[in-house]
Amino acid sequence: MKFTTKARLLAALCTALCAGLAATPAAFADGQPRQLTASAKLYKQYFQEASKEFDVPVELLESIAYAETRWVSHVPKGQLKKNGEPQLEIDPDPHHGMPPSYGIMGLRNDTYFGTSLTQGAALIRVSPEVVMIDVRSNIRAAAALLSQYGARKTKNFPLEDWEGAVARYSGIPQPEIAQIYTYEILTAIRQGREDSGYKVGQRHVEMEKVYGKEKLKKLSARRITIETGVPDPKISAPDFVDAPAKNK
């Protein structure tokens, strides 16, 4: 089966969302929390500062960074900094793969997912090049975008009210795919996520209030594997198809 470029992009995105976030347990097997690295502690400080500056929930910033990069800054090829912080060098021309995302917050600048990189940079009045490589600026740019998308919401609003802003932040034009993204972001907050390199603060979220009972059943359903063709990989996605009714 032949797939369009957009379909391949969404397939790759579903792979990252459904395999990545769901793979990390909410708690450790030994019950002991991990000691955060020096970089992770610094990033926690940046998240707190950006939350206060732009009046957005700090847990959203932490969870988006977790979903996008596991708190590892993605920098353009040739611009790695020897500062001891976790970094991943990316190729700006992936050749038919996913368009690159930048920084710890996964900001983008492409024709499909949008221009959150340049928009966020403009909001905090720094260059996109700085936002690409500087973690603090990257977090501030993401927080500024969330604040704008939140339409005057503040960090004191219930997290459930921020779902629309998170969906817009994802840059995914298909509402049902964007809901996979927001579901995983909010689930990470509801359950908590922690390792030596990241820590997403745990906070109660009324998931049914966000998605409704029937939609939530589908979003939390078992994952199904979809064959996308060769050489495209298989992807994992929620089973949106209603199961056939059992014969009475």
Automatic annotation (TrEMBL):
It comes from the Bacteria. InterPro entries: Lysozyme-like_dom_sf (IPR023346). Gene3D superfamilies: 1.10.530.10. Keywords: Signal. Residues 1-29 form the signal peptide. The keyword Signal applies. This is Transglycosylase SLT domain-containing protein. It comes from Massilia litorea.
